[in-house]
Amino acid sequence: MAKEAGKSKGENLAQVDPSLSTLHPSLIPVIAIDGPSASGKGTVAQRVANQLGYHYLDSGALYRLVALAARQRGISWQDAPALAALTQTLNIQFDNGGILLDGTDVSEDVRTEQTGKGASEVAVHPEVRAALLDLQHSFRRLPGLVADGRDMASVVFPDAQTKIYLTASAETRAERRYKQLLEKGMQADFGEILRDLQQRDARDSQRSTAPLQQCRDASLLETDHMTIEDAVHFVINAYELQKK
Ligand code: DC
Questions:
Q1: What is the pLDDT of residues 118-130, one digit of tens each?
Q2: Which of 7, 41, 117, 206 has its C-alpha lying 20 to 30 A from 142's C-alpha?
Q3: Domains plus CATH for the chain?
């Protein structure tokens, strides 16, 4: 989801120095964090954004919203032209951690496994990806942005100051997801979760447009044996180091 962190700080900066409001976007720092499903990149990215007082973009939420809206309107996840047209008309609001679609709170609906699968399917279409580009760029505002997804470093913000490829083995990710579902009191089947994740990994990394990949200039962060705090520390450290 595209929640925002540090909004007031950004507004204050622009008020102090009006020239900042016309700053070229490339001068606004971006930390791009890409990685596969359930790698924990969302949690890490959000915490990094909070710690730095930066804005936060969860680009996966946008693909999830397209899939959800398509389903509600009877549009197939395979119908690229209709999906692209739909994407242009979506009325999305990010409100205090919640997501509104046409004024209705869909925060829970966008997080379901079914919507996640749909997001991975609609994300295959170049037309849909192109239709979401401007919206993603609009999150690049002062004092900075932490963006997570699959193609943040390669396509959306290729000039990001810091690029991280955050991953973990499919087994570790399936185990994390399995525990999350149990904690929520939901039924879960480990084998099914693992198979779903592997299918989604394959679709996300084998598609021809903007596949999930580690960019040559991205730092690899393998989190199998790391705490969230360690991962947050790694990202902030990488960012501080490149500023020197
Ligand atoms: O990060 P997530 O699980 O919320 O993403 C859902 C799907 O959206 C993912 O399987 C692929 C797609 N996606 C994408 O193609 N590009 C992005 N930048 C983010 C997500």
A1: 999 999 999 999 9
A2: 41
A3: 29-243 (3.40.50.300)
